[in-house]
Amino acid sequence: MKAGRALVRDFGEVENLQVSRKGPSDFVSAADRRAEEIIRAELTKARPGYGLLMEESGEIEGEDGQHRWIVDPLDGTTNFLHGIPLFAISIALERQGQIVAGVIFNPVMDELYTCERGRGVFMNDRRLRVATRSALPDCLIGTGLPFLGKGDHGRALKELRYVMPEVAGIRRCGAAALDLAFVASGRLDGFWEHGLNAWDIAAGLLMVREAGGFVSDINGKDTMLETGSIIAGNEFVRGQLYKLLKNAAD
Known about the structure:
Blueprint: H1 2-17, H2 25-46, E1 50-54, E2 58-60, E3 64-75, H3 77-81, E4 88-95, E5 98-106, E6 111-116, E7 121-123, E8 126-127, E9 140-143, H4 153-163, E10 169-171, H5 176-185, E11 190-193, H6 198-210, E12 214-216, H7 224-227, E13 230-233, H8 235-249
Parallel strand pairs: 1-3, 9-10, 9-11
Antiparallel strand pairs: 1-2, 3-4, 4-5, 5-6, 6-7, 7-8, 11-13, 12-13
């Protein structure tokens, strides 16, 4: 929450920087680092021996070899940079290679998503479930798109050609952690993306599962943190998205 308050304060300054010659990029990078420093200090105080995997600092080994925090201090940096209020802090706890708890905080909307393995997922104390829609023409699907110098643009366009005609709409929110939280809450019926890092999806994939949803990588396997690809939704939506994306890859 302390890191969230810092981000909201910094976010309030971004608009003033949009018209400056230097631009807000350096300011946002500093905000990202400040949030990570706050989170690292709080997590280390709470669990001194745990390791950390953080977007800015990388891998930090701990004395306790069984536990690791996986942290994205600012998911949705480009949104933040442009004054778009869709960004989040994402923290997951990994125990012996398995994600067992997660937190995603959307500070502008004051939405705190929390989950613990086997105990469900909540947003501000309200229990969440994935949407029950099973027909793709009724479904709103989230995705991520590659940008300048990043990702496979041709694959993205081909996948969109396969998925767009089958669904009610596609959204590109720009923050994978929030996309997965939105699947868990039923705001989105499904989500897919490639080229993600562990800190982008670790908390969110557990939230989808704890909300009754299903998650796999693009090949239908449980290796999302290694491959960086993910498909999420209820049982029917994930399965149908998987088939469409496999067809697009053939």
